[in-house]
Amino acid sequence: MSEHAATLSIEGLRKAFGEKTVLDGLSFQVASGEVVSLLGANGSGKSTSLRCVVGLERPDAGTITVGGVTAKPGEAVPEVAMVFQKIHLVPRRSVLDNVCAGALGRLGLSRSWSVLAFPREVQAEAMACLDRVGLADRAREKAGRLSGGQQQRVAVARALCQRAKVLLADEPVSALDPAASEQVMNLLRSLADDDGLAVAAVLHQPDLARRFSDRILGLAGGRLVFDSSAEVTDEAVADLYRPALEAAASMASTGTATKEFA
Amino acid sequence: MSGLTTAPRPRLDIPPRFRPSGVAAAALITVALVLVHWYAAVQTNTSPKELLEGWRGLWSFLFGVDRTYPNGKTIHQDGAFPLDLRWAETIRPGLEYCLLTIWIGLLGTTLSIPVALFFAVISSRTTNRFVPLWFLGRGVMSVLRAVPETVYALMFIAAVGFGAFPGVIALAIHNVAVMGKLWSEAMDEVDQGPVEALRVAGASPTQSAAHAVLPAVMPSLLGLLLYRFDTNVRSSVILGTVGAGGIGFFIKTEVDSFHFDTMMTYVCMVIVLIIVIDLFSAWLRRKVGTV
Ligand SMILES: Nc1ncnc2c1ncn2[C@@H]1O[C@H](COP(=O)(O)OP(=O)(O)OP(=O)(O)O)[C@@H](O)[C@H]1O
Ligand SMILES: [Mg+2]
Hints:
heterodimer; A: alpha/beta; Rossmann fold; 2 domains; 6-stranded mixed beta sheet; 4-stranded antiparallel beta sheet; B: 291 residues; mainly alpha; MetI-like fold; two-stranded antiparallel sheet; 75% helix; extended; binds adenosine-5'-triphosphate; binds magnesium ion
């Protein structure tokens, strides 16, 4: 931690949807060259915290600083890119055009009104990004034709074409098979190790989190319940999911189910 | 396994399908509907007697009638059948008028594309988050759409005189509003995911419209465009009857001069024309991959 400045720093983040408090004073840092995993039960606020960082949600309180600069709430940050569980490429467009779209933020309308207007240097950069994720040979194929794992790597290439310093990944491997998951996680690891990106990934697989990340953050009820740079105890991880597991167990028992109808 | 089959499930009351308040409401609505229709029939002189007299008039229109004048002469007035099938005088010009009708419908559709696209983009929540502009777009389209094509045609005919051109302009203006609305609704339904992804990458609303929304909705837009072309050819027949050129104009001219057989020939040609355009547009929409 000491040799890296905290590239992404979140302080006291709060967010409520109506009555429901989703983020309750969440704070954490991600340094350059580090992979941080976020674990937590469904609804614990993992996605919401990432969406606040990239301006897709506007937090009620708290500060977000990227590379020492405070981000404006509700606005995109050029240095922060995000990949999603559902990948969100444009399936009808070519792989290369999808990657070029990562550069939109620094292109004026005259050089981006259509894919035909993308400057050559942007396309060359996009090719380099595609090469980084090992898919340069698929550049002219339609994105929708690729497998899920390949599409997720294209999404990572799009993030690289954005020249991001911070990469947020919301369940990047939840829809992928084990082999593709492995490949994507290796890629995220190598982006931190070799390219010095700060990577924060929401995962639902404690096992992947242990193997690929430097630190694991546990979220529950919009708050940080552990921040562990060492081995996370199985018990701490199990605690995260305990309330949900207990609720599921009581739903399954016939007694509760019939009582609800009576 | 055996535990599942032997455990008796509890018997629960089946909730009633109809409630008394619902039955009363249905009865009330039925009575109200019958009353409204009865009043409408009185106001419009719709009665079995009128229907019978109208039927007699229709018969003489279709098959001709002998009219006896006070001076004792009897003159036969030709009906719509048999059809007027003269090639040089009726059919060939009829085909040309049909083509003109198609050209009016085509230009009326095509010329409206850029403006319709503009209105669609500013009236969809996906592509425009600036609320005042959104309201302006919706408002302008509502106003434009409230005026029927025929009324536009009458206004432009008053301005520039009879002919196909006022028909084209009338269709184009009305179509901006209708197609703009259909297009903006198609854009509303697009998957928000890629739009959000590009927003994170710093894309402006215009850029996400060009790179996330439009590629996703293009087949829908094309399908709606073809559907509007189909509809606009039909409308252009009607516009003709108020003087905006094409086959409709000649249907009106012939009926005004009591050439019912020529008129009916043109009507048959319109039927064929509409069916052909309908099939063509459906075929093309299938090719494009939208229904
Ligand atoms: N736009 C929204 N409007 C209202 N409620 C929302 C909205 N977005 C999220 N929530 C609520 O906020 C809570 C946290 O959601 P969030 O998506 O951050 O959870 P998560 O930790 O990512 O869960 P998951 O593991 O299911 O992805 C949930 O209860 C959700 O219903
Ligand atoms: Mg989530």
